Amino acid sequence: MSFVEFLNPVADIFSSEIRNDDWIFRLHHFVTVSGLLSFCILMTISQYVGTPMHCTETGKMDESTFNTYCWIHGVETKGDWVAKSPQHLNCDNNSCWHHNYYQWVVFVVIIQASCFYLPKFIWDYNEGGRIQSLLDKIDRKTIISLTKEDKLEFSDSISNIIDYMHGNLGKHKGWAFVFYACEMLNLINVLAQFHFTDLFLGGRFIELTLNGLSVDDSSGFLPLTGKCNYFKYGSGGERETYEGICVLPLNLINQKFYILFGLWLSFLALASAFSVTLRLLLIVSLELRRFFLGYVYGWHRSGFSKKCKHLENLDHGDWFLITRILQNMSGITRYLFLEQLEGGCEI
């Protein structure tokens, strides 16, 4: 078996998948969730296989115990301080930043990934597999090589779609509004995630995003080094202090992740705002729906629009359904669909 043949089943999964959303929606539930979970896997491996924190202290404290203590209780830094020895950091008058968020990063990111998938879950639940059931017998993999004789094999499936449309006109507004609400929820979630991440990073996430890859500016709140103090009482009751410098290698990954995450959220917010704005215009504007049906989904290019004028007057719910159907059809399937629609164009 060749390598290409080995990959064919994987390619078939993606080529045959019937989608009930659009590409901006998939940026949220697929691209973003995949990226966040990949980061979680990387951080988990680095944390449990590597060394999440390595400390060097001035006394005779056991290194493993000191590392564990500092990992749990956190380290301290100043914004303009680069650690070389413990004496260089004076934290009087609460002038230092205390960091212990890093042990929660993976858990927080998993929760954030769940929030990005939530609108997709809500939409799939309410969509009820309607698009899948209508297009289930139309194979996008083999339709590419369809001959004229093969048209009969698809005729029944296409007829079922057309019959469904004839029998259910005007019944898709509520169904479509669920999708619109989920699009709005995507936008709200992006803005909420930006604010939540900013709180999680002590109000410095926006600054980190604006600074880009300037590590020096971000080292104060995503530090690579920090000071840790360990206190215990000796046999005579006196308090003993152990000071050390700790290196946080995981923050090297965190720095790059949160910079990219901030830029991605910014892009996602703009794309989602555009999507919601366009959706509102499509709901209120029949002319805009006609334009999209004609030129984006190929209705005018097919040559059938002259005989099926009523299709251009569909309400937004029926329009949304037919565009979901057309976007899941290959060129020749769409041709057959429009051809049969022309033959009994009553819509």
Description:
A hairpin with a 5-residue loop joins β4 and β5. The protein has one domain. The chain is elongated. Helix content is 61%, strand content 8%. The protein has a 3-stranded antiparallel beta sheet with strand order 1-5-4, covered by helices on one side. By secondary structure, the protein is mainly α. The N terminus is likely disordered. It is built from 14 helices and 5 strands. One of its GO terms (biological process) is monoatomic ion transmembrane transport. Its main location: other.
Helix content: 55-70%
Q: Which sheet architecture does the biggest sheet show? A: 3 strands, antiparallel
**Mean pLDDT across all residues, rounded?**
77
Number of helices: 14
- Number of beta strands: 5
Kindly estimate the percentage of residues that lie in beta strands according to DSSP: 5-15%
Radius of gyration: 29 Å
- Domains, number: 1
Protein structure class: mainly alpha
Q: Low-confidence segments, ≥5 residues, pLDDT <50?
A: 1-15, 80-87
End-to-end Cα distance: 50 Å
Series of H and E elements: HHEHEEHHHHHHEEHHHHH
Query: What is the spatial order of strands in the main beta sheet?
Result: 1-5-4
Give the overall shape, derived from the CA principal axes. elongated
Keywords: Cell junction, Cell membrane, Gap junction, Ion channel, Ion transport, Membrane, Transmembrane, Transmembrane helix, Transport
Membrane topology: Multi-pass membrane protein
Function: Structural component of the gap junctions.
Transmembrane segments: 27-49, 101-123, 175-196, 257-282
